[in-house]
Amino acid sequence: MRLSLLDRSRTRAGQTDAEAIAATVARGVRADEIGYDRFWVAEHHAVPGIATSAPSTLLAALGARTSRIRLGSGGVMLPLHQPLVVAEQFLLLEALHPGRIDLGLGRSLGFTPPVRRALRREEQDADDFEHDLRELRSFLEGTSEVTPRPAVAGVVPMHVLAIGGGVDVAARLGLPVALGGGDLLSDEVAERLAAYRRTFRPWRGSTPWVTVSLDVMVADDDATARELALPEAWAMAQSRRTGVFPPLEAVKVIRDQDWPAQVRTRVEASLDRAVAGGVDRVRRRLEQLAERTGADELLASTSTYDVDALAESDSALRTLLA
CA angle, 17 as apex, 11 and 19 as ends, to 5°? Predict the structure, then answer.
């Protein structure tokens, strides 16, 4: 499998959003240096624990600091933008960093009702997403009646971030699909990916491409890795309880707090889904994942409070799958 990282610019308790963005750029630079294939960044609006809202701007900064690694959005939320504007932004990125830009596209409308209202997008028809993808592709390929600028020699590859019916859309359009969330080893996921490959309609010679995204944390031993995965699992559980997705907290701070039974159950479930452990455990889990899904690319979406431990995990994972 190709190996990539997704960094959502997670904020940490006591840290500013600007510091979180700087940490993302530094992580991208390290990923470039140690041989990762792709570095993805995300789009989230008005989420307290996430500093990224404009992938195209962040990718421009990353492109200026890196030299080899491909840079992608994981992803641009297409229902929130006009396809022409997205095409212009990513063609500009391609002009600045030729052959290194990928455009991942999702369909989320926002984290909360007030955010969706502020974005002027409170509902989305499934057919609109597919229509917008087709229109965006025509802009990127120069086949539309409107020719966006800048004109570039290469074509920016599109990827569909799939939840539910998104897998079917990717198959119909002949596009790569990125799948995350839930149990990636389940029969349901296996069936969806089998249907994707079976019904895939090639576009200009394209072939099926499956990226699977999940948390991967590598440490000296299983217990340490599980502790490092705790801050993200805790934040996810808290968001479901309070409706607010909080910054990452230190493990000791989390352990000293009260753990309601429902929060404990959700945290343990998240930790069980994550691939967290020593090298041997992580290798076994990833071999199972590759065999079950036939994935072409692993997108590690790991976050933790300890940035040094995160850097060490990134290095260990790159070595493990070298």
Answer: 85
| Contact present, 26 and 65 (Cβ < 8 Å) | no
Rounded Cα gap, residues 156 and 103, in angstroms = 7
Tokens 């070595």 identify what position? 319
Question: What is the number of other CB atoms lying within 10 angstroms of the CB of residue 47?
Answer: 21
Residue type, 63: G
Domain boundaries, the chain: 2-217+277-320
pTM for the whole thing? Answer: 0.94
Residues in the chain, overall count? 322
- C-alpha 44/C-alpha 267 separation (Å) is 22
What is d(CA 239, CA 222) in angstroms, rounded to the nearest whole number? 26
Cα–Cα dist 140/156, whole Å: 7
Of 12, 6, 2, 5, give the one whose Cα is nearest residue 247.
Answer: 12
What's the pLDDT tens digit per position in 121-146? Answer: 777 665 789 999 999 999 999 999 99
Residues contacting 285, CB < 8 A, separation 6+: 275, 277
For the domain made up of 2-217+277-320, the CATH class stated in words is alpha beta
Residue 113, pLDDT above cutoff 90: no
The one-letter code for the residue type at 254 is I
Q: How many Å separate Cα 24 from the centre of its chain?
A: 13
Distance CA 242, CA 220 (A): 34
Amino acid at 237: A
Backbone angles phi, psi at 86, to 5 degrees: -60, -45
**Rg, C-alpha atoms of the chain:** 19
Q: Which two tokens stand for residue 250?
A: 């230190």
Phi, psi of 2 (to 5 degrees): -70, 155
